[in-house]
Write a structure and sequence with these properties.
mainly beta; Jelly Rolls; 7% helix; binds fe (ii) ion
Length: 190
């Protein structure tokens, strides 16, 4: 019986056979090396975490193997106890889905007011564009969370802390040029 694809193929796979698609669009956890040096804040105690890259580029690291992104990038974050990330924003929404352990996700106003949500396995939160957010592992066990960003092209995250933002070399560049700059720094966007 013949089958009909009701939607056109994405241009990237028009000329690929199924074997090629399956090979290029699959990544296995065992083949990914955790990267502890992705983010501008991850050299500071309390913000140390490792990224496993799955779909889409890590900012400044196109050489790291990843599944080509359409409109969404996906990574998995390993967060040791006592670690997390600094309050920040993105130009698009970001989704956290906890795979293992527990995590406190926070939203902040510019005046410092903070609201927290405690998440466990299978819990999910979406951080809307421009809303200051972050997470912290306040437990005794490491946490793994899946991170999805609704953007094909990686962009620098915007740190809410003025000192942290100023200390970040790539952040000293006019933000209007960030999108098109070729970043070879070690820092990433998630
Ligand atoms: Fe974020």
């Amino acid at each position: 019986m013949s089958k009909v694809a009701r939607h056109p193929r994405h241009p990237a796979v028009v000329n690929m056979n199924l074997e090629g698609i399956a090979q290029r669009y699959t990544i296995r956890f065992a083949d990914i090396k955790p990267d502890w040096n992705v983010f501008g804040d991850s050299n500071y105690d309390g913000y140390r975490r490792a990224q496993f890259r799955y779909i889409g580029e890590t900012l400044g690291k196109p050489e790291i193997r990843h599944i080509p992104a359409g409109a969404t990038r996906l990574s998995v974050m390993y967060v040791p106890p006592g670690e997390g990330n600094a309050p920040h924003t993105h130009p698009v929404e970001e989704v956290f889905f906890v795979l293992k352990g527990n995590l406190t996700v926070f939203f902040e106003e510019e005046d410092g007011r903070r609201v927290e949500e405690n998440l466990g396995p299978w819990d999910c939160v979406s951080c809307p564009a421009g809303v200051i957010h972050g997470f912290q592992n306040n437990g005794l066990e490491p946490a793994y969370l899946q991170v999805m960003v609704g953007q094909k092209k990686p962009e620098p995250m915007g740190y809410a802390d003025v000192k942290l933002d100023a200390a970040e070399p790539r952040m000293q560049v006019d933000r209007g040029t960030l999108k098109d700059a070729l970043w070879v720094s070690q820092f990433g966007a998630v």
